[in-house]
Amino acid sequence: MSLEQDIVKIIEEKKSIKAREIAEILGLTTTDINSKLYGVLKSQLVQDKKYNWSIRKVESSVSSKTSVESLAPLKNNNLARLSRYYLECLSKEIGQGIDEFSSNFNGLPKYCQIDGVPSLTDGFSIIPEKINSYVNTFRKNRNNLSVCIGYPIVVSAQIAGSGNPYFKVKPLLVQKLDEDSFLNSELLLSEDVPYINPEALSYIEGLKPMELLSDMLVLNEDLGLNELESANLEEIALRLRGMRESWGWLEELDIQKLSETDLSKVTVGGIYNTCAVFLSEKSKYTQGLEKELDDLQRQEERQYAKQFSVN
Question: Is 3-61 a CATH 1.10.10.10 domain?
Answer without folding.
Answer: yes
